[in-house]
Amino acid sequence: MSAPLLSVRDLRVDFDLGRDGLFGPRRILQAVAGVSFDLAAGETLGIVGESGCGKSTLARAILRLVPASGGSVNFDGTDLLALSAAKMREQRRHLQIIFQDPLASLDPRMTVREIIEEPLRALLPQIPKFERHDRVRAMMQRVGLLPQQINRYAHEFSGGQAQRIGIARALVVKPKLIVCDEPVSSLDVSIKSQIINLLQDLQQEMSLSLLFIAHDLASVRHISHRVLVLYLGRVMELADRDALYTNPRHPYTRALLAAAPDLDPQRARAQPMEPLEGEPPSPINPPSGCVFRTRCPFAIDRCATEVPRLREVGRSHVACHKAEEIFELCAKVAPE
């Protein structure tokens, strides 16, 4: 088996919020608490969870857009967290990001040509001007933009068109890894499917690896090979897409799927799940033991004293002390 393109181990991100009052203790917000996973070349890993669970912070820490507090991020044989700023800049062309709000992520003072060309000028300055322009035109065509739009400004485009500009900007330097930070959350349903299909086509053509962050579980199911479920900065479950959606092992995963509408009535009847109630606790003062225990219907005394490790149960890796019982529950209600 070949080595993974991206290997993240025990990644942590803490934010110092200062003291609670003049003489109070320092408050530390634990945004990412020891996340580990691998990503193969050409693979898409979906990352899901409620708002504030650490999805975007995790992605930004991998790209070193926010400082990590610990752990390692090994990309194509290089530990990114150990690199100097200059060495990290050399890696930027291989690591790009597509943002959630396409219009907010595009400079309103720049034309489409300037927006897409900017990464080439910054990261590949040795490329001559005529070749940069050829790359910009070719990438515009590939993402579905018209040649006559090259001198227009971002505000002249719809949300879907603006996201195509953002995709072209990310891919023009021919990266190996793209972080998609909720790239379709602000788009209409029909446009969402177009953008997801475009990303899948580009992934195959350019042998891209994707980290796909989203709230929309249907979009994640469509594009991902595997799915990682985060809660309060910790991994609750990591599994193959089909295994996770048909037989989720962690109660938090089951609750997320219960909250998402399923248009297949047979599948909905086969997987009866209770939606999640209540709000996540504060990451400044997370619960002891399993951070999900305060909302978990399966919680036991052990959950309050011991952090569950991520272990293999069935076809999933689950951080739950009662994973086997939930496994049996899933087997009983699974369709034959």
Walk me through what this model shows.
By secondary structure, the chain is α/β, with parallel strands linked by helices. The protein has a domain of 89 residues. The chain contains twelve helices and twelve strands. The strands form two sheets. It has an eight-stranded mixed sheet with strand order 6-7-8-3-9-10-12-11, with helices on both faces. A four-stranded antiparallel sheet has the order 2-1-4-5. Helix 4 crosses helix 5 and helix 5 packs parallel to helix 6.
Keywords:
single chain; 336 residues; alpha/beta; eight-stranded mixed beta sheet; four-stranded antiparallel beta sheet; globular
Percent helix: 25-40%
* Rounded Rg: 21 Å
Kindly estimate the percentage of residues that lie in beta strands according to DSSP. 15-25%
Task: Write the element-wise H/E pattern from the N-terminal end onward.
Answer: EEEHEEHEHHHEHEHEEHHHHEEH
**Ranges with pLDDT <50 over ≥5 residues?**
none
Derived from helix and strand composition plus strand pairing, the structural class reads alpha/beta
Record the strand order, biggest sheet. 6-7-8-3-9-10-12-11
The average pLDDT is 88
Distance between the termini: 33 Å
Shape: globular
Number of strands: 12
| Major sheet | 8 strands, mixed
Q: What is the gist of this entry?
A:
This protein has 336 residues and is α/β, with parallel strands linked by helices. It has helices at 55-62, 85-91, 112-123, 129-142, 159-171, 189-206, 217-223, 241-246, 251-259, 265-270, 301-305, 323-333; strands at residues 6-19, 26-39, 44-48, 70-75, 78-79, 95-98, 177-181, 209-213, 226-231, 234-240, 311-313, 316-318. The longest helix is centred in the middle third of the chain and has 18 residues, at 189-206.
